[in-house]
Amino acid sequence: MSMASERANKSGFAAEAQRKINSKYDPGLAQEALEWVNKLTSKVPNTSGDQENFYEVLKDGVILCELANAIEAGSVKKIQQSKMAFKCMENINMFLEAARKFGVPAEETFQTVDLWEKQNLSSVVNCLHSLGRKMGKYGKPGIGPKEADKNVREFTDEQLKAGQSVISLQYGSNKGANQSGVNFGNSRHM
Question: How much is the CA Rg of the chain, to the nearest whole Å?
Fold first, then answer.
């Protein structure tokens, strides 16, 4: 039994904020993420993107840790098989550390309670998609668009100096400009 089921229902501003967070959850993206996790681990029993199923599959963190180990062996040293809250949250935290090591930026990860207490499952989906985009570096199948590689360009001093003498079209052009037809204000009445 998770902490989320033992809490009182939210009300007022907290309930409104939770409804807004829940509205960002996309079952299609969640299903795509679970299918990708299953492709790498073969451990996901049900890849439905339904919010309840997504939570049930990932809440103890075991599959997330196995995902990290499928990407790079030994990423998570010891996966806790216990259903105790502390052990499950430890699994989730170890996955998050591995995800950061794989290159997922901090703003695309989630807090442990977002998953454990079912507070923000859309951020969990976003984290999995972010991790999936990084898989090109690890030779694993990914999800979503492929991340761009650096395209560093080197210019010689001669090329840089040549660029300084060109007037950019952003400055506009005065070709064909004159003041014919320009009149301001009221015309002279006779």
Answer: 27
Which residue in 121, 102, 98, 93 sits closest to 30, CA to CA? 121
State pLDDT tens for residues 108-165.
Answer: 999 999 999 998 999 999 999 999 999 988 889 989 777 777 888 888 998 888 878 7
Please give the Cα distance from 110 to 127 (Å, whole number): 7
Q: Where are the domains of the chain?
A: 3-138
- pTM for the model: 0.72
CATH number assigned to the domain covering 3-138? 1.10.418.10
CA pair distance 38, 43, nearest whole angstrom: 6
d(CA 32, CA 70): 18
As separate numbers, helices (DSSP H) first and strands (DSSP E) second, the chain gives 9, 0
